[in-house]
Design brief:
362 residues, alpha/beta, 2 domains, six-stranded mixed beta sheet, four-stranded parallel beta sheet, globular
């Protein structure tokens, strides 16, 4: 059965279930196992062993391993990411609160904005300034960067986002600050906004860098453990991660820029829904993906999901644009809310029944 046939394994880790699909030529098998939240790779390995045993195959037979996951999304929505600090240009400490100075509901006096991933107490600034042309107006104060180290250690920070003004035009100051902090604080994850999102728009770039830093320790350690576990099992094929835009990337890139995986699992579902629409000849389709932790909906026209350059995570108002945390990455456009099959219901301060975003998971 295996002779001459390409063996492909696809895994999608959700907050509640981990789904595995095995393709060997014309043979296709599926398995569903409970996600292991503290060590997600364990569910991957357990499910892989089970599905390979059904097909009388081994991990060493796999040629291609495709991986999608909502781990990054769920970490942001449920606020289970790393203890993250933000270092910005002097005068820009509150960019996460100021945002674009717009309100998603102009007439709501008690508007509920999304809670920033980095609280104000963990936001710091240093003197430096680069203009929009990339010219240095004020050199980076390296002593000020080093002076932050004791404060960062005292706050038990495990990840740092650096977002300086106009770093997209000249990333030199961000890179130098990153080098200093990496030398002073080995083991701490460092994200540069100029590497994650080298584009204009200060708020969106900073928000994207913060989101990357927030999930990087979680995703980096998970992907490293998973790759090592597969190699121990004699896996010799290629590993690809599904990105938010519906493409694939290498595991090394995914470990550096896990924010690109924020909509990884749902993006795969939307791509598949588009393929089904093409088979049926349906040009206007609405796809719905109900998970245990989140629910996703996507508009598909002419067999292609809508795409965008900006995505909002964790919207405070489910259907209002501007009420979430902006992430500036290529992404399949969809609406996602923290209400899935395993979401926890509770009574809020106004005695209303609310659902999510916390989930019972597996």
């Amino acid at each position: 059965m295996l002779e001459g046939a390409e063996v492909r394994l696809a895994v999608d880790i959700g907050g509640t279930f981990t789904d595995i699909v095995l393709d060997i030529g014309e043979l296709r098998r599926t398995r569903k196992v409970l996600t292991t939240p503290t060590q997600p790779e364990q569910a991957v390995l357990d499910g892989t062993r089970l599905i390979l045993a059904d097909a009388k195959a081994r991990i060493s037979d796999i040629d291609v391993f495709i991986h999608g996951t909502t781990l990054a999304t769920n970490a942001i929505i449920e606020r289970r990411g790393a203890r993250t600090a933000l270092i910005a240009t002097s005068g820009f400490r509150d960019v996460l609160d100021i945002g674009t100075e717009s309100r998603y509901d102009q007439y709501d006096l008690s508007i509920d904005k999304p809670k920033p991933l980095v609280p104000r107490a963990l936001r710091f600034t240093v003197p430096e300034r680069v203009d929009a042309h990339g010219d240095v107006r004020l050199p980076l104060d390296e002593a000020a960067v080093r002076a932050l180290v004791p404060q960062l250690r005292a706050q038990n920070v495990t990840s740092i986002a650096i977002a300086f003004l106009h770093a997209y035009a000249n990333p030199a100051h961000e890179r130098r600050a990153g080098e200093i902090l990496a030398a002073e604080m080995p083991g701490v994850s460092i994200t540069l906004s100029s590497a994650v999102c080298p584009e204009i728009r200060e708020y969106e770039r900073t928000s994207t860098a913060v989101a990357n830093a927030y999930v990087q320790p979680l995703m980096d350690s998970y992907l490293a453990r998973m790759e090592q576990a597969l190699r121990i099992e004699q896996f010799r094929g290629a590993i690809y991660l599904v990105t938010s835009g519906g493409g694939v990337t290498s595991i090394d890139t995914a470990r550096r820029f896990p924010v690109r995986l924020v909509e990884s699992g749902p993006a795969g579902g939307a791509i598949f829904a588009g393929q089904i629409a093409a088979r049926l000849g349906e040009r206007k389709v609405l796809s719905f993906d109900m998970g245990g932790t989140t629910a996703k909906i996507c508009l598909i026209e002419d067999f292609e999901p809508e795409s965008s350059r900006v995505f909002e995570v964790d919207r405070a108002a489910r259907f209002l644009k501007g009420s979430g945390l902006p992430v500036r990455i290529p992404v399949i456009e969809m609406v996602e809310i923290g209400a899935g099959g395993g979401s926890i219901a509770r009574i809020d301060a106004m005695k209303r029944v609310t659902v999510g975003p916390e989930s019972a998971s597996s």
